[in-house]
């Protein structure tokens, strides 16, 4: 398939990235060549094959439903943010 | 242990490592150093020994941390502008285990941002230089860690291998690099890339050191539910008879010197009485395409958490919350991060999911079955790590597909969850290190390390 400028803008939207004008052309070219490469999978017959999403051999690793000691405190975590007010993380307006 | 027997003090070892780190500053191995804390930890170990107290198996051994392992003793940037300023209160389980045995982290090594790359050129902080030729790349993404060990700055370094990020830089610098079985070591506290293929492993100069590090770090971690119960320390070393070589990897795609090195190692094994068998794995040629669908899909999901709100970089002066997210992600990510996130969202988006993501997940099953069949025909497989030795800085950085092709022979192991050990296999005429990789079935890590001694002559 052919990747167009609109596709890049759409994907940037899905990715929550505000591309600058200068980035769009390069990304169009790069994504086109990557998609061309991965499209070679079309040749491979995968009829009646079950998909694999993970290679961990165990299933249902259970543990007791209990509160475990945490590695980081609320204060330590809040100290990582750029802006904090009244024990909350401050961000620009939402609406 | 040399330190416990008072032959040498921990402080003198750490000072020597720091001296070398400064001597080799031009190679750009480290993103940040941990000098004061390292010296203080060394003094503590020396004091313990002086008091006759028991010390760990790695007491006073200086090491380097790939900059995607969280620990409170410095900023963890993962090579990315996005995480600059993040000093995490959390310690990665692997780091905790190494420190509990007395190992001392002297600094954090350079890497492609978020481990996206095969040369360390995608680091926000600039590339690391190859240990054998300063005009060439270190390999990646764990390039800084590989060069730190190859130059002898530290005894060992941590790495992470999602598609070859330990094995390829190990081979570019002539040292050992292990990607363990998926789930052998904990992923807790390491910046996530692609969760179904991420593996935590090491760079060393000897198989013996690799064995010691695995015996310390392998095992189940309640903080990572995809860790296997410790099989490493109860493994019996397998009696090896047959070593397989993959027909498809013996062609002109692979550099002539690497093929020659492979042939020589096969002859060496035959002279020692091992049987070399040619195996066919026809689906492996699709492994790279499968990987560059599944991995970006997982990357897009894992990297959606970086929004500038809770930690790390935050773009200034955004009008509203959506703007904050979008600007932070535009300014905080490297071009390769953006490519992978966007490809990931492409293969996952409606209309393309079946053709790409689901197709790749099915192909992954075929690759796993192919490995199972291969290991019914031989005990281990010996292959090149990458198609070529270290390439020149700048050679592939503007061509993402050319850079991806570096991972051609390494990614299938991650898709199948099997272990691979990069081993040094001499140098080419230009003096560039050549590496090969030994591949085994799941949980064969210990036997793999043991068998690599046979290949060292």
Rg of chain A, Å, rounded: 23 Å
Number of strands of chain B: 11
Number of helices in the DSSP assignment of chain A: 3
**Termini separation of chain B:** 26 Å
Shape of chain B: globular
Order of helices and strands of chain A: HHHEE
Q: The biggest beta sheet of chain B, please? A: 11 strands, mixed
Which blocks of ≥5 consecutive residues of chain A have pLDDT under 50? Answer: none
| Straight-line N-to-C gap of chain A | 38 Å
> What about the largest sheet of chain A?
2 strands, antiparallel
Helix coverage percent of chain B: 25-40%
The largest chain-to-chain contact, stated as pair and per-chain residue counts, equals: A-B, 56 and 73 residues
Beta-strand residue fraction of chain B: 5-15%
The assigned structural class of chain A equals mainly alpha
Query: Averaged pLDDT of chain A, please?
Result: 93
Strand ordering within the main sheet of chain A: 1-2
Percent of residues in beta strands of chain A: under 5%
Keywords, separated by commas or semicolons:
A: 95 residues; two-stranded antiparallel ribbon; flat; B: 457 residues; Amidase signature (AS) enzymes; 11-stranded mixed sheet; 14 helices; 37% helix; 13% strand; globular
Describe this structure in words.
Chain A has 95 residues and is mainly alpha-helical. Chain A has a domain at 5-43. Chain A has three helices and two strands; from the N terminus they run αααββ. Chain A has helices at 5-14, 21-38, 74-78; strands spanning 84-85, 88-89. In chain A, strands 1-2 form a two-stranded antiparallel sheet. In chain A, helix 1 (5-14) crosses helix 2 (21-38). The radius of gyration of chain A is 23 Å and the shape is flat. Chain A starts with a helix and ends in a 6-residue tail after the last strand. The mean pLDDT of chain A is 93. Chain B has 457 residues and is α/β, with parallel strands linked by helices. Chain B has a domain at 10-234: Amidase signature (AS) enzymes (Alpha-Beta Complex), CATH 3.90.1300. Helices cover 37% and strands 13% of the residues of chain B. Chain B is built from 14 helices and eleven strands. Chain B has helices at 10-23, 35-50, 93-100, 143-150, 167-172, 207-217, 256-271, 287-302, 321-332, 335-348, 354-377, 400-404, 411-416, 445-455, and strands at residues 30-33, 62-66, 104-109, 156-161, 176-179, 199-204, 242-246, 275-279, 380-384, 420-427, 433-439. An eleven-stranded mixed beta sheet of chain B has the order 1-3-2-4-6-5-10-11-9-7-8, sandwiched between helices. Chain B starts with 9 loop residues before the first helix and ends with a helix. Chains A and B meet through helix 1 and helix 2 of A and helix 8, helix 9, helix 10, helix 11 and helix 12 of B.
């Amino acid at each position: 398939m052919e990747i167009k400028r609109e596709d890049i803008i759409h994907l940037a939207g899905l990715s929550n990235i505000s591309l600058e004008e200068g980035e769009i052309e390069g990304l169009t070219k790069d994504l086109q060549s990557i998609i061309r490469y991965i499209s070679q999978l079309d040749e491979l017959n995968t009829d009646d094959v079950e998909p694999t999403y993970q290679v961990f051999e165990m299933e249902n690793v259970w543990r007791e439903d209990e509160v475990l000691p945490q590695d980081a405190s609320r204060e330590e975590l809040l100290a990582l943010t750029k802006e904090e007010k009244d024990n909350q993380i401050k961000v620009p307006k939402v609406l | 242990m040399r330190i416990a027997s008072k032959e040498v003090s921990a402080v003198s070892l750490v000072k020597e490592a720091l001296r070398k780190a400064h001597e080799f500053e031009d190679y750009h191995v480290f993103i940040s150093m941990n000098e004061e804390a390292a010296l203080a930890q060394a003094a503590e170990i020396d004091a313990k020994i002086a008091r006759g107290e028991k010390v760990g198996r790695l007491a006073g051994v200086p090491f380097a941390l790939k900059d995607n392992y969280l620990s409170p003793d410095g900023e963890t940037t993962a090579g990315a502008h996005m995480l600059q300023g993040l000093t995490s209160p959390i310690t990665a389980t692997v780091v905790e285990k190494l420190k509990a045995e007395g190992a001392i982290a002297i600094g954090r090594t350079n890497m492609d941002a978020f481990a996206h790359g095969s040369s360390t050129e995608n680091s926000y902080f600039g590339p690391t230089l190859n240990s054998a030729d300063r005009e060439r790349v270190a390999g990646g993404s764990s390039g800084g860690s590989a060069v730190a060990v190859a130059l002898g700055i530290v005894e060992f370094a941590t790495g992470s291998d999602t598609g070859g990020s330990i094995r390829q830089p190990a081979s570019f610098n002539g040292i050992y690099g292990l990607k363990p079985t998926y789930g052998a070591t904990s992923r807790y506290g390491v910046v996530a890339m692609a969760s179904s293929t991420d593996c935590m492993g090491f760079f060393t100069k000897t198989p013996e050191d690799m064995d010691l590090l695995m015996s310390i770090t392998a095992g189940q971690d309640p903080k990572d539910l995809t860790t296997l119960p410790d099989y490493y320390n109860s493994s019996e070393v397998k009696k090896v008879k047959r070593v397989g070589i993959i027909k498809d990897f013996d062609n002109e795609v692979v550099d002539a010197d690497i093929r020659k090195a492979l042939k020589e190692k096969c002859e060496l094994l035959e002279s020692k009485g091992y049987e070399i068998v040619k195996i066919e794995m026809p689906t492996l040629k699709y492994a790279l395409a499968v990987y560059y669908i599944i991995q970006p899909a997982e990357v897009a999901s894992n990297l959606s958490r970086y929004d500038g709100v809770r930690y790390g970089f935050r773009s200034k002066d955004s009008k509203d919350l959506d703007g904050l997210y979008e600007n932070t992600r535009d300014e905080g990510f490297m071009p390769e991060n953006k490519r992978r996130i966007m490809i990931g969202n492409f293969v996952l988006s409606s209309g393309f999911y079946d053709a790409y993501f689901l197709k790749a997940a099915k192909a992954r099953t075929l690759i796993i079955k192919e490995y199972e069949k291969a290991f019914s025909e031989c005990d281990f497989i010996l292959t090149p790590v990458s198609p070529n030795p270290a390439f020149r800085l700048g050679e592939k950085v503007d061509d993402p597909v050319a850079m991806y092709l570096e991972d051609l022979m390494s990614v299938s192991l991650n898709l199948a969850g099997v272990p691979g050990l990069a081993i040094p296999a001499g140098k080419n005429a230009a003096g560039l290190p050549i590496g090969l990789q030994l591949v085994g079935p799941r949980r064969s890590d210990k036997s793999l390390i043991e068998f690599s001694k046979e290949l060292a002559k």
